[in-house]
Amino acid sequence: MKYSADRIEYKVAHRIILKEGDTLYLGNKTYSVVGIIGKGGFGSVYKVSEENVKSNSLFAVKLLDLYKVQPDDIERLKQRFINEFKVGRLDSPYLVKYYDTGSLKGNPYILMEYCGGGNLFDELKSIKSEPQVLNAAIDIASGLKALHSMGIVHRDIKPENILKSDDGRYKISDFGISTRLKDRMTQVNFLGKVKYNEVFGSVMYSPPEQLNSKSYYKKTSPMMDIYSFGVLLYNLTHKGKDPFGGEVAYQRDSSRYLKNKTEGILSRPIKIQTGFSRIWYFIIKKCIEPKPEDRYQSIKDVIQKLSYIHKNTPDKDSIGLKHKVKLHIEHSESKKSIAFPLDISDDSSEVSMVIGRDTKVADINDIPVKLGLKDDFLISKRHATLRYKSNRFFITDGHQMDNGHPVSNWTGSLNGTMVNKKKILPGDWVEIKEDDLTEIGNYTMKLIVNYDSI
Description:
Structural class: alpha+beta
Number of helices: 7
CATH architecture of the largest domain: Orthogonal Bundle
Strand content: 25-35%
Distance between the termini: 58 Å
Number of domains: 3
Helix content: 10-25%
CATH class of the largest domain: Mainly Alpha
């Protein structure tokens, strides 16, 4: 079959299904359909080659099946298609390039760059090394930077919308629901209420405010994309898994799934793979904060953090936490608490600090605990030892004897030390992270890290 770009406007779109070998006359050029790349609810993407060209002749054609659309939705989908083409005209090596648009028998099409490497979703489980993850992360963040610098929010960042070019570069695609901050797509009536009860984006990757159809048009911001990017980073560093349980959890109990997203309750805690920089933990955690104001406020800040990893690969553990780290100790019942700033700097190779009950003896502990409560005595004079090494924190019960004994000679506390309800023995080091609950006597202890210091 042969199809030419429309020269007249069709009042009703005709049914059209492209097949291998079909000829397309688009603009002043001729293309041959090579095959189908993907198919969605209201359209398909085809691989085409430009005829009479010897090399670099492959392109992709996205065709909207407008003949399937209900009459009330036609104009809205057509406008969305036009919007997508406009965004795709932005010039960036990290965005899929759009070349031309028109219609075939009333069905809108976009001629775009062909990316032969597939999409990121197909690679999630095969990407295992840190350089692979970092390469994808930096490319995607660079694409977001290009969009945000033009005042555009993508609103549908997910692995399926990240394509890989033949040279290995990752590019953002599918700008159908992207919007300029000054031209938000959600429509409201004269009372200021949302006209259409719809949610833009993908539930698994959208931030809580984007899933609220009644109010999110007021909150459209680059932080939406930053949240989605954080979930995508979680996918990349956790072998394709979703932080909130994924499609299975959503189908099982959608209300609970959305509630967990709103409250930031992860079904799978962030757990960075062995050999990866711990900075990934802090980047992901800050990106997926449920409140927009608690996330990175600019994708440029995220790129800066990623550059720290890039500069220190493969020696990833040379990056410290600087000085903005606190140890928060709270009494289990009264909730009375005290915070200790930890003296950690970028060049700290290893630091050990003894935690214990405050006494009149000077310098017996690096972190003296005294809240003036009756339970203070439950903390031993030298209860536990905290160690910072290679950008990670570890804790053990008791303290090391300082009398010439071997390294293995440790003295335990009277009431023990527990991490996440598991008792640890003197001299057995257990890594602790910000989400972990450490108990000494009748007190709980948590690390508090200022992520902006990473």
